[in-house]
Amino acid sequence: MTSKKARSMAGLPWIAAMAFFMQALDATILNTALPAIAHSLNRSPLAMQSAIISYTLTVAMLIPVSGWLADRFGTRRVFMVAVSLFTLGSLACALSSSLSELVIFRVVQGVGG
């Protein structure tokens, strides 16, 4: 491997580690903030389970598809699209004004997760 290529690949483990960290963080962070989110949406914390399940179920269903997409279109391209979708979904979740919107945007996050 040339030194230029080795340098360009040096950051790859850190990028992958950050992506895995963000996915794990997002899968669990809602549990901590659930009472505050439920209060701001005028819902019971018990009614918020769909917001948790929607993300987890979407990620679980799309794991096999993401492998196929990476093989077909390239790992870098699929990764960049996934990170973009995850980021847009996160922003939309922050701006959601109802539980229905939150669930829909958590699914968008799951597609990118």
From TrEMBL:
<keyword id="KW-0813">Transport</keyword>
<feature type="transmembrane region" description="Helical">
    <location>
        <begin position="78"/>
        <end position="99"/>
    </location>
</feature>
<keyword id="KW-0812">Transmembrane</keyword>
<keyword id="KW-0472">Membrane</keyword>
<keyword id="KW-0997">Cell inner membrane</keyword>
<protein>
    <submittedName>
        <fullName>MFS transporter</fullName>
    </submittedName>
</protein>
<keyword id="KW-1133">Transmembrane helix</keyword>
<dbReference type="GO" id="GO:0022857">
    <property type="term" value="F:transmembrane transporter activity"/>
</dbReference>
<feature type="transmembrane region" description="Helical">
    <location>
        <begin position="51"/>
        <end position="71"/>
    </location>
</feature>
<keyword id="KW-1003">Cell membrane</keyword>
<dbReference type="GO" id="GO:0005886">
    <property type="term" value="C:plasma membrane"/>
</dbReference>
<dbReference type="InterPro" id="IPR020846">
    <property type="entry name" value="MFS_dom"/>
</dbReference>
<feature type="domain" description="Major facilitator superfamily (MFS) profile">
    <location>
        <begin position="12"/>
        <end position="113"/>
    </location>
</feature>
<dbReference type="InterPro" id="IPR011701">
    <property type="entry name" value="MFS"/>
</dbReference>
<dbReference type="InterPro" id="IPR036259">
    <property type="entry name" value="MFS_trans_sf"/>
</dbReference>
<dbReference type="Pfam" id="PF07690">
    <property type="entry name" value="MFS_1"/>
</dbReference>
